[in-house]
């Protein structure tokens, strides 16, 4: 089976500002990859590069800032995951008058993330944890081959976070998630990429990544 994406000796950054150097990695279908490392080490940069390389595939994104529109309802923010599935006319109709079937589709994923019955609530009225759940619901509604997430469960308690990461794993064949919790990464990933000092310094199966080895990434 062909790799989903490959990078070889690449320098990644924003504009002319380098963030990561000598990035070499291949992502195969079916992998669950956790990105670990201190804040600002380049996890978001790597995810952005992967999203760009995977643009021809169906990818669901859970950005760190959630990517939500505050004045719009939870329903409409979740439905954004499907905007490119239909033309302008249908999307405009859904903005003004969603059908019962469309509301039911969104309600299904809202229930999965613990937001049952909140489809009509404005996102601006939600807590940080609830907004994170809306972003996860949008990704679940979109579906696809790959989910890319930048700290997708950072605002949730460990048991809730583990449950939702399990739902993502069951819903997407492949995932690449930047995580802040070493324990969660070891519980949910099959492979760990560790970033430190502007480089990928660790790339190994989770079985070869004991906790003390991972904590060295934060030293």
Automatic annotation (TrEMBL):
GO MF term list: ATP binding; ATP hydrolysis activity; transmembrane transporter activity
- SMART domains in the cross-refs: AAA
Enzyme class comes to: hydrolase
GO CC, sorted alphabetically, is:
plasma membrane
Q: Name one Pfam family in it.
A: ABC_tran
Q: Which Gene3D superfamilies does the record associate with it?
A: P-loop containing nucleotide triphosphate hydrolases
**Zinc-finger as UniProt keyword:** no
UniProt entry keywords in alphabetical sequence: ATP-binding, Hydrolase, Nucleotide-binding
Domain ABC transporter, residue spans: 2-219
The keyword Cytoplasm is assigned to this record:
no
Q: What is its EC number?
A: 3.6.3.-
Protein's UniProt name: Arginine transport ATP-binding protein ArtP
Gene source species: Pseudooceanicola marinus
Q: Which gene encodes it?
A: artP
């Amino acid at each position: 089976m062909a790799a989903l994406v490959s990078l070889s000796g690449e320098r990644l950054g924003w504009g002319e500002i380098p963030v990561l150097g000598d990035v070499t990695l291949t992502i195969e279908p079916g992998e669950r990859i956790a990105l670990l490392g201190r804040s600002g080490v380049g996890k978001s940069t790597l995810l952005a590069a992967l999203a760009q390389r995977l643009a021809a595939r169906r990818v669901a994104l859970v950005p760190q800032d959630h990517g939500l529109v505050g004045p719009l309802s939870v329903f409409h923010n979740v439905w954004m995951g499907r905007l490119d599935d239909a033309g302008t006319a249908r999307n405009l109709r859904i903005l003004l008058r969603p059908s019962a079937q469309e509301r039911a589709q969104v309600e299904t994923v809202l229930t999965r993330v613990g937001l049952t019955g909140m489809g009509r609530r404005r996102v601006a009225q939600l807590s940080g944890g609830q907004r994170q759940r809306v972003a996860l619901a949008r990704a679940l509604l979109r579906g696809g081959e790959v989910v890319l997430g930048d700290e997708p469960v950072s605002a949730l308690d460990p048991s809730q976070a583990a449950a939702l990461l399990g739902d993502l794993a069951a819903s997407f064949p492949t995932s690449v998630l930047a995580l802040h919790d070493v324990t969660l990464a070891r519980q949910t990933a099959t492979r760990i990429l560790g970033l430190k000092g502007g480089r990928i310094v660790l790339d190994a199966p989770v079985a070869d990544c004991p906790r003390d080895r991972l904590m060295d990434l934060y030293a």
